[in-house]
Amino acid sequence: MNMILSQLLLPVVFFFSVSQAAETILGLYVYSRHGDRSDKSHPPAILYNLGYSEMFSSGQYFRNQYVSSNSPGRIEGISSDEVDLSQISVQAPMNAVLMTLAQAFLQGLYPPVGSQEESDTLRNGTTIYAPLNGYQLIPIYTSDQGGGSEDQPWLQATSNCANALTSSNAYYSSQDYMDMFLESVVDETYSGSRNSFKNAYAVYDIINVALIHNKTIPASELITPDVLFQLRTLADHQQFNLAYNASETVRAIPGATLAAQVVEHLNNTIHARGKSNKIGIQFGAYASFLSFFGLSQLPAADPDFYGIPDYASTMTFELFTTTAADPASAFPDVKDLQVRFRFHNGSASDATSQPAIAYPLFGRKETALPWSTFADKMNRFAVGSSEAWCRACGNTTGECAGGAHSSPAQQTRPDGDRKGNGISKAVAGVIGAMVTLAVVLGVEASILLTTGLRLTRKEKKNHPHHHNKTLESSSSDGSSSGSSLTGPTGEKRWAKMSGFIRSGSS
């Protein structure tokens, strides 16, 4: 997702030193994508050191902006150096990548305090110093929702929501899907369903990981920045449409449950009157980002929200006030509370030059909303109870049978097996084909299969298309209409989808 700012968006960029001069931050909720990892087509996905570094940097960024004693947007009453566990709540799925990277983020948010600061003296006079230089232990609450998300290219693979699975599957029979892909990314080595738009994300994911980590890539001259951008655009379009549909909002069930969690946490901050629940952090996959983007109408603020967020991207919901607190209660009245949404695309390691940006939610113009308005808008699509989840998803077996509902975040059987609301056989076949498609680039054996599959240049052809509004319509001469999606160097996102790869740079 290439968050390129236009002149129109510049007034929306708020540097903390300016925007919070008359503000008091009372609490936060952060949703973060994982950092760099191996491709999904070769499970299990593993964490790379680059991803570790990205998440650690993001933790440092949030520390510098909200937690440190000299932070420009320091949360009122937050413990700056030694973590107060009543003030922070952290959640991540049972997944090796997500759980590990959550720990990396927390290392940056609350670094070691020094062994001398963390010591106990026993009755016999012995002094015990904390190990790892006073490393701070912060519990990470777990859920099984999304636990296998980093090992499966299929976006709804871990949602367990029957109606969401059906809705996403329906996209594969839509006119938009059938018009999006008319030629193959590979040569005649493979044919039929394996060379289809269904594999758009899997192909991009493999190539992207290879370009980051492989020293040499056969046929690398074919993977130009223009080609990579086209692959990314196709993956963006496919995944957004699998994650959200305006007429079938159940498809966006991950974003709906996230909305409920955000409101619940900030509401707990308010009820605690700022004494606890100051920071809520959740780690997850990009499906929740895309579905929330759609539900909250963020593409109306910037069409780049139709794209997949980069590694280590974060959504932040700030609870703040511009009114002095009531001296009697030391906490503002509810009517004086506001919420602002910020998004940072990619790791916050370069956040000093590219700070998190405030964007308006729900198709509005203002970036700061009264708490009551924010909560009302979120609750219109939020799914926060087990009963509501079972009803929306149409699940009637397992945990949803006979009213014996469990939390939406725990939709697995006691033995850890998933329920029987799996994907269709057709899509299961596509997932199976993902590994085969790993040979797209002929990269090293650790990433690609050695079948001799290779990329070939395809001549650009013009075909009639019915383009979804989520992607710009572009003619062969470069003219365009509809929403503008801008590439990394200012070019318009390519929408003449005659195949995964287009020769030339027009």
Q: What features would you describe in this structure?
A:
With 506 residues, the chain is α/β, with parallel strands linked by helices. It is built from twelve helices and twelve strands. The protein has helices spanning 16-19, 49-67, 96-109, 162-170, 175-180, 200-213, 225-243, 253-271, 286-295, 371-379, 386-393, 425-436; strands spanning 24-33, 88-93, 119-121, 127-129, 141-143, 279-284, 314-321, 337-344, 357-358, 368-370, 473-474, 480-481. Strands 1, 2, 5, 6, 7, 8, 9 and 10 form an eight-stranded mixed beta sheet that branches. A hairpin with a 5-residue loop joins strand 3 (119-121) and strand 4. Helix 8 (253-271) crosses helix 9. The model is unreliable at 2-21, 146-151, 182-191 and 404-506 (pLDDT under 50).
Topology (SSEs and partners):
Elements (H helix, E strand, L loop, with lengths): L15 H4 L4 E10 L15 H19 L20 E6 L2 H14 L9 E3 L5 E3 L11 E3 L18 H9 L4 H6 L19 H14 L11 H19 L9 H19 L7 E6 L1 H10 L18 E8 L15 E8 L12 E2 L9 E3 H9 L6 H8 L31 H12 L36 E2 L5 E2 L25
Parallel strand pairs: 1-6, 2-5, 2-6
Antiparallel strand pairs: 1-7, 3-4, 7-8, 8-9, 8-10, 11-12
Helix pairs in contact: 2-3, 6-7, 8-9
